[in-house]
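Record type: ASSEMBLY
Status: queued
Input:
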Amino acid sequence: MKYPIVPFAIAFVFLLALAIVSLVSGAVSISAYGVLEWLFGFEAESLTNTERTILMQLRLPRVITACLVGCSLGIAGVGFQGLFRNPLADPYVIGASSGAGLGVTLAVVLGFQASFVGLSGVALSAVVGSLLAVTVVFAIGSVGRGSSVLTLLLAGVAVSSMINAIASLLMYLNDDSVVVILAWLMGSLAGNDWSIVMATTASSLVGFAILWSMSRPMDVFLLGDVTSESLGLDLFRFRILLVVGSSIATAAAVASAGIIGFVGLIAPHVARRLVGPRHLWLLPMSACVGAAIMMVADVAARTVVAPAELPVGILTAILGCPFFLFLLKSRKETQDGAS
Amino acid sequence: MSQLTSKELTFSYANRLILDRISMELKAGEVVVLLGANGAGKTTLLQSLCRQLRPEAGTVEVAERDIKLFTRRSLAQNIAFMPQHENRQSELTVHDVVSLGRTPHSGWWMPFSKHDREVVEESLKATGLSEFRRRRITQLSGGEWRRMILARALAQDAPILLLDEPTAGLDLKYQFDVLDRVRRMAKERDLVVVVTLHDLNHAAMFGDRLALLFNHALIAIGTAREVLTPSLIRQAFDVSVTVIDHPVHGTPFVVPMYPTCGDIQRVDTESGTTVRDD
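Status: finished
Output:
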């Protein structure tokens, strides 16, 4: 399969259909016909003004954000799984999640109010927190000769535990802020407007560009450190770029939707089944799969207890966990069958 | 002109000396076989020659230029290294992995050129892997996998080829095949080939020169006749051998003298009768 056109064509059609479903559904239901007309630039006379405002100001930015958050988590997942050569790694294993959590906690506790390119102080603190945590993990993990993958993974676990403890301590001491912090940590796409769409688009594009430009070295890196070096890869530079690209993508997701687990873990697995392990195709496919998962989760979050709404992060975990266990089981069976 | 030179190369790990002042000069078109007992430092020497390991003293030069001055990529254009082990847990196909041998030439972004694809095809053919091209590397046997990483090293198309036990795990036909192919390529393309082997007779047949490591030092380097002597072999491997001429090729042929156990017989050369050492 030289160019996997079919899987990408299917993914594109599927995403488009999901986007339409997502635009139609919610507390106020809008006719699919009207949405289609509106989307493709017709007058859409069947829609009321209120419906148009809902579409333009609430649902479209939300659908696009869901899509971008899913894409970012999907590619960040590929990035971190590549970095660790471990299919169980995800954007949060390396400490990004805990760092973001501590950033959020600090911002809420200290009442940090600044904003930048449409992102709130809390979102910014989450991004800074996750980047700092990843930097610390990487700095500790790469000390010494031939920074091994295991060292990085262990450093991630250790640093995450400490950061989580600090965040818990802060919440314990400031129990009046706990609800705000928890709402953020559970992940949500509510209240995203066009400025956030722009900021998320920019950062996820940068993350994607960095990672996609490294698809061939990422293929090489699969074969191990010794082989990568003998094929001309400067491991230190490569790892830093990989961490930077994946962290930017993670930050894009965290800043606009809070902490959403499992998407970064599952999307690469599904994508690998569809287009194989080569990163040239794996990265864009993982982005598509991530986007699809996020949109499904978002529709569910909005409709299951409508007119109220569930935190989307809880849903991705509830939907994602059994799915992941199923993947694990079928993977084990194929391996047993092969041996 | 010497193509690959090591000068007083010294390496230690955790305060344990692994390589003790190794100096060699290798010329283009020459196949040099590294011999030595387990732990003598063969793999460490190969890895130091391609800057996988940084020596604590001494230098390595490629075409009289210190390898420290090369970028990783330009070093990979000059030296192809075939490791003994690498990560096999990916779903890549044989063709994918062999194609990655072209990375030093194509870089990170450039699509593979027609020339790249031709080189990959040649390497697959040379290692008898053409029909395995679509197979996932997780499904290869040990021998097929080894031929694949040899194919990748060949696809790297470098003037210096360092092969760490390329014949381990191969059946006899492919051992001969691989060694013969590598030797012919060395002659045709004027390559420097350094290869570690365990079989002394393969070394005698295949190497232009043999380098014998013992106790982390190079104790002999020269032709098979100079290096494969009973006394040097006893020193390096702690076994008794007798060296005869190969009945067909005339090269030195090492015949092990098995330790005399009660149930092993030997031929009494004078009387021609079978006797039992008790």
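Annotation: The two ends of chain A are 26 Å apart (CA to CA).
Annotation: The longest helix of chain A spans residues 49-84.
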